[in-house]
Amino acid sequence: MSGSCPHPPHALGRAGEEAAARFLQARGLRVLERNLRTAAGELDLVCEAAEGTLVFVEVKARGPERSLEEALAAVTPARQRRLARAALAYMAERFGCERGARFDVVAVGRGEDGALTVLAHLEHAFSCDG
């Protein structure tokens, strides 16, 4: 069918999270959780860096017609606050507040061959200070 999308939006998001997880694992992060729902909100990926830092990853997957800047801009200050609340709830429940943590954003897009690829990985993309 002409003009049909190979991945509906929900499937694109899940495929993007899978691409991001593979990318991060190849760089030494261990994926602890995927699509985790807490009382405070959802976390796309929760990873652990080699030194023990928890890494909360927001994945933004976009089709070929949308830009990298648009994907990164989708992590608005309001979204950052929701992610921080969810991360703090996760940490309090699982680890206490003794662990170091950071927030990363991974933008995933479709390459010219149609395959999903990581366009950008922003480490320490934002903090939850205040």
Structural summary, described in words:
This protein is of the alpha+beta class. It has one domain (9-126): Trna Endonuclease, Chain: A, domain 1 (3-Layer(aba) Sandwich), CATH 3.40.1350. 32% of the residues lie in helices and 36% in strands. Strands 1-2-3-4-5 form a five-stranded mixed sheet. A hairpin with a 5-residue loop joins β4 (101-110) and β5. The longest helix is centred in the first third of the chain and has 18 residues, at 9-26. The protein starts with 8 loop residues before the first helix and ends with a strand.
Strand order of the largest sheet: 1-2-3-4-5
Structural class from helices and strands?
A: alpha+beta
**Termini gap:** 49 Å
Count the DSSP helices. 3
Q: Judging from the principal axes of the Cα atoms, what is the shape?
A: globular
How many domains is the backbone divided into?
A: 1
Number of strands: 5
At the fold tier of CATH, the topology name is Trna Endonuclease, Chain: A, domain 1
